[in-house]
Amino acid sequence: MSQGQYIDYPRWPSLAEESLRIDIKIPEKVRVRDRELNYGGTFRGVVISGMGGSGIAGDIVRDTLQDRLKIPIVVNKDLHLPPYVDDNYLVIAISYSGNTAETIRCYETCIDEGIPVITISTGGKLKELAERNGTPHMTIPKATAPRYGLPCLLYSCLRALGKALNIEDKVINEAENSINYIRKGVEDYERKFKSLADKLANKFTMIYTPSPIASLGVRFKNDMNENAKQPVAVCIIPESEHNDLAIHIREIERLEILVVDAPSVRDTEHGVHVTALTKVLDELGRRYYRIELEGDSRLSEIMYGVTGLGMMTIDIARIVGVDPVKIEAIDRVKKYVTARS
Ligand code: F6R
């Protein structure tokens, strides 16, 4: 591997700080062709549209902000916007490269239908289109690959949404605090996460994550898939206590279980579900590893876990003998799709 041992992870705190400071100007209205995009009113909902390593930023933003908003944050990892999305919604189209066909397609729908849209990318076609149309755009710093640029995607998105919804001060303050927990995730890595790599290498992992921080489970799956080339099932608590859990009555070869616990859920109803789950796993004699998150907010907890577990997937890649950076099969699909679109 030509990159540093943990690729961009040691730079994550500074990438996050830089991205949170990126300025964005959101005008009241933008006229594109015969349509007027209205950014100044109140929105009926927000859609964050992006794929893979970019789309996950939307999941984390949703987990961070949804509870305090009266409007839905919809994460759209698809070619089309949901049919109910109209010009009363705000869309954030997010793509690290700016060249992902699905995300460009959603941006174009916004322009065609007069839906206010903000774009976030390192450059690419999305930036070009935004400049041509005069829609607000944020250019973010580069990393080795999209997934290693998560802080750039996430913190710029928080900044943009904070501004668009007039909740900037609160969002920025919480985001700044969470960067301390990215730093802590890097510092705690050797002590807290690294030993898991040997245990999960060449296994199928099920990760149980409480629903308020479900994005951590999804990100872990994506990192295991793309970095370590390993399969993972994301099991969201409480839903997975109604289906996934049933399989643990059987001893399944090569299966490992992670259970995520966090201060923000411990003394809540979700905490009751985590306790019930581990109690049943104990009764069934199933081995599991508990991931104890740290943090002063959901965002901090998620980013602490995303950092530690993400670094661990790079160690797994090394153990199983794959290059964590290369994602050849994904690149091939993108080539075919781009050629046809
Ligand atoms: C690659 C990665 C992928 C990409 C996805 C979308 O590191 O994480 O999941 O993020 O293929 O591409 P972008 O992010 O450029 O829109």
Write the layout of secondary structure elements.
Layout (H helix, E strand, L loop, with lengths): L11 H9 L8 E4 L2 E4 L6 E5 L2 H14 L7 E4 L12 E6 L6 H13 L3 E5 L2 H10 L3 E3 L10 H15 L3 H26 L2 H5 L3 E7 L3 H15 L3 E6 L17 E7 L1 H4 L2 H16 L4 E4 L5 H23 L7 H13 L1
Helix pairs in contact: 1-5, 1-6, 2-5, 2-8, 5-6, 6-11, 8-11
Explain the overall architecture.
The chain starts with 11 loop residues before the first helix and ends with a helix. It has 2 domains: 9-166, Glucose-6-phosphate isomerase like protein, domain 1 (Rossmann fold), CATH 3.40.50; 192-320, Glucose-6-phosphate isomerase like protein, domain 1 (Rossmann fold). The radius of gyration is 20 Å and the shape is globular. The protein is of the alpha/beta class. It is built from 12 helices and 11 strands. Helix 5 (150-164) runs antiparallel to helix 6 (168-193) and helix 6 (168-193) packs parallel to helix 11 (298-320). A hairpin with a 2-residue loop joins strand 1 (29-32) and strand 2. The protein has a 5-stranded parallel beta sheet, with helices on both faces. Strands 9-8-10-11 form a 4-stranded parallel beta sheet. It has a two-stranded antiparallel sheet with strand order 1-2. The protein has helices spanning 12-20, 52-65, 101-113, 124-133, 150-164, 168-193, 196-200, 214-228, 263-266, 269-284, 298-320, 328-340, and strands spanning 29-32, 35-38, 45-49, 73-76, 89-94, 117-121, 137-139, 204-210, 232-237, 255-261, 289-292. Residues 51-54, 95-97, 100, 103, 145-147, 226, 327, 330 line the site of fructose -6-phosphate.
